[in-house]
Amino acid sequence: MAETQKKAEEKPKEKHTIKIIEDRCKGCEICVVYCPEDVLAMKDTIVSVVNLDKCTACMRCELFCPDFAIYVDLPEKH
Amino acid sequence: MAETQKKAEEKPKEKHTIKIIEDRCKGCEICVVYCPEDVLAMKDTIVSVVNLDKCTACMRCELFCPDFAIYVDLPEKH
Amino acid sequence: MEKNIEIRLSGEGGQGLILAGVILASAALIDGKNAAQSQYYGPESRGGISKSEVVISTGDIIYPEVADPDLVLVLSQVACGPYTKDIRRDDAYVIFDANTVKEFPKLEHGRIYKLPFTMTAHDKLGKPFIANIIALGTIVGLTNVVSREAIEQAVLARVPKGTEELNKTALSEGFELAKTIK
Amino acid sequence: MEKNIEIRLSGEGGQGLILAGVILASAALIDGKNAAQSQYYGPESRGGISKSEVVISTGDIIYPEVADPDLVLVLSQVACGPYTKDIRRDDAYVIFDANTVKEFPKLEHGRIYKLPFTMTAHDKLGKPFIANIIALGTIVGLTNVVSREAIEQAVLARVPKGTEELNKTALSEGFELAKTIK
Amino acid sequence: MGKKALLLSGNESCVEGALYAGLQFYAGYPITPSSEIAEGLSRKLPKYGGVMIQMEDEIASMGAIIGASLAGKKSMTATSGPGFSLKQENFGFACFNEVPCVLVNVMRGGPSTGAPTGPSQGDVMQARWGTHGDHPVVAIAPNSVPEILTETVRSFNISEKYRVPVILLLDEIIAHMRERVILPEKGELEVIDRLKPTVPPDQYKPFDISNTPMPLVPPMAAYGTGYRFHVTGLNHRTDGFPTNNGELIEKELLRIMQKMAMYKKNMLKHEEYMLDDAEIGIVAYGSTSRAAKYAVNVLRSEGIKAGMLRYITIWPFEEEAVEKLAEKVKFIVVPELNLGQLILEVERCARGKASVYGVNRVNIEIIHPHEIIEKVKELLHGIRV
Amino acid sequence: MGKKALLLSGNESCVEGALYAGLQFYAGYPITPSSEIAEGLSRKLPKYGGVMIQMEDEIASMGAIIGASLAGKKSMTATSGPGFSLKQENFGFACFNEVPCVLVNVMRGGPSTGAPTGPSQGDVMQARWGTHGDHPVVAIAPNSVPEILTETVRSFNISEKYRVPVILLLDEIIAHMRERVILPEKGELEVIDRLKPTVPPDQYKPFDISNTPMPLVPPMAAYGTGYRFHVTGLNHRTDGFPTNNGELIEKELLRIMQKMAMYKKNMLKHEEYMLDDAEIGIVAYGSTSRAAKYAVNVLRSEGIKAGMLRYITIWPFEEEAVEKLAEKVKFIVVPELNLGQLILEVERCARGKASVYGVNRVNIEIIHPHEIIEKVKELLHGIRV
Amino acid sequence: MAFEYEKYIRKGTLPHIWCPGCGHGIVMKSLLRAIEGLKLDKNDIAVISGIGCASRLPGYLDMNTLHTTHGRALAFATGIKLANPKLKVIVVSGDGDASAIGGNHLIHAARRNIDITLLIFNNSIYGMTGGQVAPTTPIGAYASTMTYGNIDPPFDIVRLVEGAGATFVARTTSYHTAQTEQLIKQAMTHKGFAVVDIIDACPTYFGRKNAPKEAYDMMQVQKDNSIPLQIAQKKKPEELQGKIITGIFVKKEMPEYTDTYYNTIIPKAMGSK
Amino acid sequence: MAFEYEKYIRKGTLPHIWCPGCGHGIVMKSLLRAIEGLKLDKNDIAVISGIGCASRLPGYLDMNTLHTTHGRALAFATGIKLANPKLKVIVVSGDGDASAIGGNHLIHAARRNIDITLLIFNNSIYGMTGGQVAPTTPIGAYASTMTYGNIDPPFDIVRLVEGAGATFVARTTSYHTAQTEQLIKQAMTHKGFAVVDIIDACPTYFGRKNAPKEAYDMMQVQKDNSIPLQIAQKKKPEELQGKIITGIFVKKEMPEYTDTYYNTIIPKAMGSK
Ligand SMILES: Cc1ncc(C[n+]2csc(CCOP(=O)(O)OP(=O)(O)O)c2C)c(N)n1
Ligand SMILES: Cc1ncc(C[n+]2csc(CCOP(=O)(O)OP(=O)(O)O)c2C)c(N)n1
Ligand code: SF4
Ligand code: SF4
Ligand code: SF4
Ligand code: SF4
Ligand code: SF4
Ligand code: SF4
Ligand SMILES: [Mg+2]
Ligand SMILES: [Mg+2]
Q1: Percentage of residues of chain G with pLDDT beyond 70
Q2: CATH number at residue F156
Q3: Is the CB of A30 inside a 6 Å radius of any atom of ligand 3?
Q4: Are E164 and E37 part of one and the same domain?
Q5: Fold (CATH) for B23-78
Q6: F260 and F278 share a domain?
Q7: Which contiguous run of DSSP H or E holds residue A39?
Q8: Which of C69, C84, C91, H77 allows an S-S link to H48, with CB 3.0 to 4.6 Å?
Q9: Per-residue pLDDT tens for C149-177?
């Protein structure tokens, strides 16, 4: 498993948010399907965060989104 | 070793001749060099038979001549 | 109707405008008329500006694109500017989707309507992508450019198996919308 | 010598005609003259018809090929027909290799000579391929189109290392042959 | 109108035309806006027992159709600008060896990758001069979907009858446009096959014209039929073998060009619209001619005597048609979806007898009738732009 | 004549010219009769620190020189007909993106493989129209070995100065012929380098002309110099990015063509020989012009007032030169080693004011002065052939 | 933001033109992370592509970028690399671009061992032109020019470039984002021609005629079908039918072309008269 | 006459254009013996070539012959084979023709496994154009475009076509006349794409700048350097440096393209509406 991913998983669950750039989201649902915690859901043709609390900042949504439309906003600078 | 060659070598030494088509011979000397019995020699820029008696009809000259210029003329039809 | 009827369906890629144009042209053929359908789309697979034009005539169609629009449908904001500027006739229909178009161009000619195609598709039929068929119904309802039978037959012939009922309903919704402004 | 001197060296591939032409042209440059050398050869690597033309002048050379031959050298049978037919001047030299050419074309103009270049190369020098250089000697000896010093210098500059003496001898043989007919 | 009317795109119509004409081999490489031709044939050609293959590139496609044609099959390829450029080397081989085949070029916006979905008429001169060396060329430019069908059949017929590759020059507009087409019945349109040799195999020479019923057109044997012949891209003799003999080289080249000259009239095709009393000539082709015709109608309705000369066969260029036109009109307008290509030929053939003006566009939109109308009016009122 | 006179072939002279002009990158694929250019550069270019690479084919060679030019190096490739056809697609990319580079085409007998060692001028129209779509082109055709050197330098200069690919059209005769050449000293001939941007990297747009000292010619940054720009073969905006906006597309295409129009006079070059009082005009170029000049001399010596207009820059075509000529001569003769190519332009520009006749040959021999002389006499005596 | 992709992206160019769910965007992100990991200056990177959906990538990158003709990117890139050896040169290709029309440049770049990193966005189809068969389309799959199911045996890109002499060859999938990042990094660090064959998904056109259709399902297939090379080596050929073998297949040291040219030819030439 | 070559040769075409000692003529004879051995009808054989010295071969054969453009013979041959599947199709190529400009058609013919026999007359140089470097020229050898010695690593043709999917791949030399005959026979009997890489000699141009120079010496090198595959397999890589490994490298059964087309696609298409 590669650095970026590992780093993210080891990280203690601090406060973070999921940032969605709606103009870019094309509604492919990849992030929704691959989010292990069901944090995301489709709303119309665009994704939205429905359960931020469950988010583990695992980074999968960010890594997989083909459209640079979803980011995990970590509190500390990386 | 392939058929043609083998056949030729096994053949009893019957009477045969070496036919040279002078118009085609370009004098590359390949036949002269590869004749194992020194049957051939260069005469000017063209090959000629100098010692037919020693010829074993091994076919090398014919096989190697790039110019279709030298043939071993076997008595029997093949 | 001696003159050609020149119809432009505009919007963006993914809205099914080309299909709609093809259906309209097929319907014309079913009615025994002549039709020419053409289109423009860019390389973007989504969101790029797009149009489909249909010219319908009882005689020969000389110029196959819209030279003097009788009807322009606009299903998205990006299409507003470029595709409405050549409207020259006061009796030309200009029909905007009231949901997707937010800023309407200022037009000097034409009879302007704003209809909720997308909302109808979404709310009534639960399928946003069916707005094109609804709009077709409205266009035919408004102009009678082809017969209702022909457009129904043409729609059914061209839509995916299993979606026939949905499309029929969409058409009807379009005809209903037409009534609201006729 | 105000007029251009137009020389054609013809024969077949492998006879070193191009080299001979280049040497002759270089000699002209050494003499401070102008020269243009051109050639034709086919795709065959051996036996195909071939020619090399040299135009030498004290002034500009307008047309770079032989338009009106002053001298035609023919070193092989195949070249006889095509390369002698444009001889228009009675004082033009036409020099055949007496050994390789068996059938001589009927010519209406020109001073015709048959010289044993190949035999000389073979018998006297033991190198059949040197006939080209012998012929060069003859040409210069006959026409003085370039100086003897220049042609010697040009030959030495262009032949492979180690063959200088051979080539010098060949040139001299050519000059000797020229004397036989002068 | 007994038969069923279909709504076909131009590319689909081309597929129908090719099948009607007896296409048996298609090789191509996908490129917008021509790909629907390959796609249609992928579905339909094997139904006719023919072969459709997608090759590794355009060069290979052109090579493959020449091979198939030499093996006796009616062959075709289709492409657009970038692919058309790539096919030029092998296309020249076909021209030189008089190999019947049809090369469809659906023109798109250029140069280079340009605007793949944008219409254009930018390859008109390339169709004539794209490959190196002098060579015969036929190029045909229909202007409607139904005409694509009939002109595709005519392209095959010319190609087979005269042993000359034919370029079918479509533009993106008519290739992608859909119009009503009624498929012709079998026998309704003429379908011509190439001349077969009548001499026995040992007397056959692939470019020999001493035994042909059609002067200058050598009959054509197919590989594998007992006629063992040679074909080369080198300058060759009538027996197909290479030669360095300048006389023979020139003779063979001239024979091919003379063949074109001799049959040119049979290859030409143009439409005249309201030319009889025309004072203003519009010369057009392809989709642009439909705007031109529309413009003529509008101008006539306003009392301006305009007329249109439409080239259907573009190459060889029918010089006489322009010459005649130039004699009688005040000026000639040539609308083209490029920066002025066929206009050069029009200018040349007008020989100064009429001034020639272009209406040009390269903004990936079709030329609008109004642009032509305005240009004519502007010129009429003596305003030069 | 202080400097040493060398006996060089035309191809060798081209090598010297390219090195003089500052060539730094050569990519090619061998083909007769151009190969000596690659061979000469294989030996000499690395001495100058430059790179000479033999690529896998002509397409790759053309691509590589465009890449190298965008990376800031003066680049060249050389080929002959078949390779010229193959290079067309990428050549169009260079034309469209205004990439300076020199493409040498040593013409040989065509079409197709034709006669590899036979002379020809068969690619003159292809040089203008070989790639798809409208595009600017410069083509230069010297007629002697020393002129090849100076015209090679001029080709690079034009290419660099105006950001336009230049085709150097040699014919087999002058490429393989040897003549006396005196190498120019450093500084003796002008050597021009492309405009570099003056704006900082973040303001740089590769096709922007708002900040250029030369109107219509955008300064050119090189990859790897801190200017991070984009180049595409798609229709693009001034910032290099693709667009579907018809207006922008047209604007950019027209700008390139306007640039050509604006600087055309600086690219043109012709020679007039005895034209002042000429009654008979001969229009020629390349090796054929030497036969033409010889013919003029012979004709003059017989009291016939012939003169020659020789095009050195063929494309863009200097229309005015023919127009002027046509005004004053009885007729124009155009000798070409092809079946009539540039004659079409001559005819067009003569506008019917003088009749135009060709003297054509495709028998892989150079045109002989006597053929031109005879043609002129024949025409003078009113005998049409 | 966990990773600042925008640092490498040209302002105003997003959203990109790719379809919803197109794998090209996912791979692009892996590429950017790899570049970040190598701490390269954007001024020193040149990214070249041919034509196709994948080939639109360079336009988005704030680097030295060139979008050439279909199949020819490696040829242009060869010119760039030789003209300016200090540039890190990356070529981005679709599978059609790289292995159909571009096949010749592919094998020759491999043969020369020129220092270029080639990323093949291998979605088994021609995306840009609407779903025609590619030299990578599996037997039996449907494509718009294979109406009756594909009969053209596909290339194994890894074996192809290996046979041509490539000195670094690896395979991964768009699903394996971390592996992709790592392999691209290693490819870029490798001195010589390096190829990464990235199995990718075109939901629009490959999905249109084949199953599965949805992007996320296609990614699942990538995941489920992948086997790392070390494991694959222990299996029988039958067991590997239809599998995607991932990892590094070739990694060897050989003289690099640009280097050899500048350090052998030029000195020799300058030394000789 | 021991073997009646003239039976297959077009009257009046000899002497051929090849140089004294050129290996092409020797290989041509091996080819003719192979054809004789297969008892094929001349009417059923098509021989196609590109451009180059080797490519002049078809002109001499009294068969269906086609001399195409440089590098493109396989493309033309593909059209011929598909148009008339009953033809036995042989392509004759130079090494440059086949692997430089023609490389793409080579790998794609291999991929398709179309029933064509490709004979590569591999003399490590461009003969026809005067001795320029080829993609088969050994490192360090001199060529007219490699003044300072070749730096381009050569292809191993066998590995290249194997990597591309060829189902029959063999190598021999022009010296090994009997082996050449046998391998050509096997290649022609193989159903599918078959390549025979025949190491050959160009005394004129390869010999001009390299040693040895004489045709007979070059043949001696072929003899001395050749190692049969079975023996080579037992040796260490170091021991095989500069050796010519001969024999059959690949021979496997796979569906043949023409066959698949006619027996799968056409019936399917005719069956569907
Ligand atoms: C010379 C040429 N031929 C064909 C095309 C059309 N074309 C554009 S992209 C493409 C193939 C795209 O497939 P791929 O390379 O796999 O990229 P993808 O779109 O799947 O990412 C083709 C055939 C072209 N632009 N130029
Ligand atoms: C498109 C094109 N490019 C280049 C050439 C020039 N050319 C002819 S043959 C040849 C190479 C010959 O080498 P090879 O194929 O190895 O055959 P050989 O002559 O060695 O037998 C080349 C480059 C050509 N005829 N056409
Ligand atoms: S970071 Fe992981 S858990 Fe959080 S939303 Fe994204 S995928 Fe789901
Ligand atoms: S993966 Fe990206 S584009 Fe797809 S739905 Fe999620 S945010 Fe939107
Ligand atoms: S057959 Fe053998 S022995 Fe006789 S001449 Fe020929 S090579 Fe010599
Ligand atoms: S091998 Fe043939 S060409 Fe060579 S010398 Fe002997 S007979 Fe003559
Ligand atoms: S067509 Fe396919 S490859 Fe192209 S952007 Fe859409 S999904 Fe991606
Ligand atoms: S040049 Fe070489 S390959 Fe060509 S015929 Fe001569 S020896 Fe043979
Ligand atoms: Mg793809
Ligand atoms: Mg070779």
Answers
A1: 99
A2: 3.40.50.970
A3: no
A4: yes
A5: Alpha-Beta Plaits (3.30.70)
A6: no
A7: none
A8: H77
A9: 999 999 999 999 999 999 999 999 999 99
Phi first, then psi: give them for residue G162, nearest 5 degrees: -65, -45
E228 and E80 within one domain: no
Q: Report the distance separating Cα F131 and Cα F93, nearest Å.
A: 9
H2 in a structural domain:
no
Domain range for residue H50?
A: 7-271
For residue G117, what are the CA distances in angstroms to G89, G169, G184, G196? 6, 10, 8, 8
- Residue H206 is which amino acid? F
- Interval between CA H257 and ligand 1 midpoint (Å): 24
Residues D22, D27, D31, CA angle at the centre, nearest 5°?
Answer: 150
pLDDT in tens, D111-120: 999 999 999 9
Q: For residue C182, what pLDDT is reported?
A: 73
Interface residues on G facing F, Cβ-Cβ cutoff 8 A: 10, 13, 42-44, 46, 48, 51, 58-59, 62-69, 72, 74-84, 86-87, 104-105, 108, 261, 265-266, 268-270, 272
Q: Report which protein residue has its CA nearest ligand 7's atom 6.
A: G19
Residue of G nearest to F58 (CA): G75
Identify the band that residue F385 occupies on the pLDDT scale cut at 50, 70 and 90. Answer: very low
Ligand 5 nearest-atom number relative to CA B72 = 1
Determine the distance in angstroms separating the CA of F82 from the nearest CA of chain H, rounded to an integer: 8
Q: What is the pLDDT of residues C67-98, one digit of tens each?
A: 999 999 999 999 998 899 999 999 999 999 99
Do F250 and F112 belong to one domain? no
Scored b (16 or more CB within 10 A) or e, D6-31 reads: bbbbbbbbbbbbbbbbbbbbbbbbbb
Cα angle value E293/E299/E303 (rounded, 5°): 140
**3-state class of B63 per DSSP?**
helix
Distance CA G10, CA G6 (A): 8
Residue-range definition of the domain harbouring residue D27: 5-179
E282 and E321 belong to one structural domain: yes
Give the total number of structural domains in chain C: 1
Residue G212: which CATH number?
3.40.50.970
Say what the pLDDT of residue D181 is. Answer: 85
Shared domain for F57 and F157, answered yes or no, is: yes
Name which of D41-50, E144-153, F247-256 the model is least confident about. D41-50
Q: How confident is the model at residue A78 (pLDDT cuts 50, 70, 90)?
A: very low
Whose tokens are 């989104």? That residue is: A65
- Tell me, what's the pLDDT at F1? 40
Residue G266 resides in a domain? yes
pLDDT of residue F320 exceeding 80: yes
Q: Give the predicted TM-score (pTM) of the model.
A: 0.97
Q: Contact E60/H75, CB-based, under 8 Å?
A: yes
Q: Could you give the CA distance from residue B26 to residue G111 in angstroms, rounded to a whole number? A: 37
* Residue H131 maps to a domain: yes
Helix-helix angle G157-164:H157-164, to 10 degrees: 170
Residue F208 shares a structural domain with residue F352: no
Taking residues G197-225, report their average pLDDT: 97
Domain that holds residue F71: 5-182
Q: Based on the domain organization, do E14 and E159 belong to the same domain?
A: yes
With an 8 Å Cβ cutoff, the interface of chain H facing chain F consists of 51, 67, 69-71, 100-101, 103, 126, 128-130, 132-133, 135, 144-148, 152
CATH at C21: 3.40.920.10
Helix (H) or strand (E) holding D101: none
Q: What percent of chain H has pLDDT over 70?
A: 99
| Per-residue confidence (pLDDT) for residue C2, from 0 to 100 | 52
Domain-located, residue G15: yes
Residues of E in contact with F96 (CB under 8 A): 111-112, 114
Q: Which residues of G touch F67 (CB under 8 A)?
A: 48, 66, 75-81, 83
Is the pLDDT score of F144 beyond 80? yes
Angle CA B8–B11–B16, to nearest 5: 85
F246 in a domain, yes or no? yes
The complex scores an ipTM of 0.96
Residue B70 near ligand 5, beta carbon < 6 Å = no
> How many CB atoms sit inside 10 A of residue A60's CB?
21
